[in-house]
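Dear colleagues,

For the upcoming journal club I promised to circulate an example of a predicted protein-ligand complex. I picked one with zinc ion because it came up in last month's discussion. The inputs are reproduced below in full, followed by the predicted structure.
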Amino acid sequence: MENFFEEMKQKVQELRTKKSVKILAIESSCDETSVAIVENGRKVLSNVISSQIDIHTRYGGVVPEIASRNHILAINPILEQALKEADLTLDDIDAIAVTQGAGLVGALLVGVTSAKALSYALKKPLIAVNHIKGHISANFIAHKDLKPPFVCLITSGGHTAIVKVCDYNRFTLIGSTQDDAIGEAFDKVARIIGLGYPGGPKIDKMAQGEKGDIVFVKHDAFENSFDVSYSGLKTAVINYVHQKEQKGEKLDIKNICASFEHQAVDMLTQKAIKACVQEELQTIVLAGGVAANSYLRNSLTELGKRHNIEVKFPPLNLCGDNAAMIGSLAYFNLLTDDPADLSLTAKPNIPLE
Ligand code: KG4
Ligand code: ZN
């Protein structure tokens, strides 16, 4: 095994000078099984995504054990489809990348084990990728000229943070949530008002064109910092709904959705702009599943215009979980870091940095 790792390190050195590097990437951190082939970090040759949303909807959220089983069923056919769509064989692949964390341990292990088996059998370097950083890289695919430094607003199901992206695979934290993630808050509020899973897209749809005039929280608990809190907002919505129900009053679901969405988004966007001004940068990019939210995309773009800040986000198909973003970041990791060895294991709580 020691020899194998040394051999892979040597291969990575050689790949750094190769004109075209094709990476096969695997993503299985939550309820999407995805395999992609990405060339030089920017060009997607294929990106096959199999979502389990229909399976988990009937349980009102992702059931980890069911997610793992379905990844096992999906991974090999999806791998074959990704190669077919790119019109390549495994011989054409230069390295194997995989999401190591964050995510559900059983789900991650399916991807990690498959990637290790491919790496060993094909004698191709194994590249470990941090899922949250991967979401940022979706922007390198979508915006061919995008170069660090810039500010990134990470808004996903499990993470919420404002970061300064210093290099393609390095960033520093400016602020983050002190409790719930924004996507988690969308999903919990959706459940309380009976919209079900997945909550974010459903609230987004319900809120379209609505004024949103219910004030759930009056004060920002982290007013003078770049940190945010979502548990207060979430609890305020829950209390509002319970009080209405106790009084036998009808809920205005659309107005609740818009009011919650606007407050959840506004506190983040204003801080992201402030961070960008403080860092003297001209670009903010959005990353993560909640980056698909139409109010977030529109309101940040508007705010950006007022401050001469350019706002960029990935297309909808690269906002949610996908392996193309993993293949993109893997290329930048390959340029700067050693490959992973075969002792690689899933890290469900891998930190942001
Ligand atoms: O990034 P992601 O796929 O998962 C993690 O890496 O954690 O994000 C999933 C989250 C879910 O909470 C989902 O409700 C939310 O993204 N989401 C949205 C929208 N589409 C997905 N939230 C608000 N508006 C949307 N349109
Ligand atoms: Zn994600």
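Two points we might discuss: The domain at 2-137+320-336 is CATH 3.30.420.40 (Nucleotidyltransferase; domain 5). The pocket of KG4 (ligand 1) is lined by residues 30, 131, 135, 156-158, 183, 186-187, 198-201, 204, 288-290, 292-293, 320-321 (CB under 6 Å).

See you all on Thursday,
B. R.
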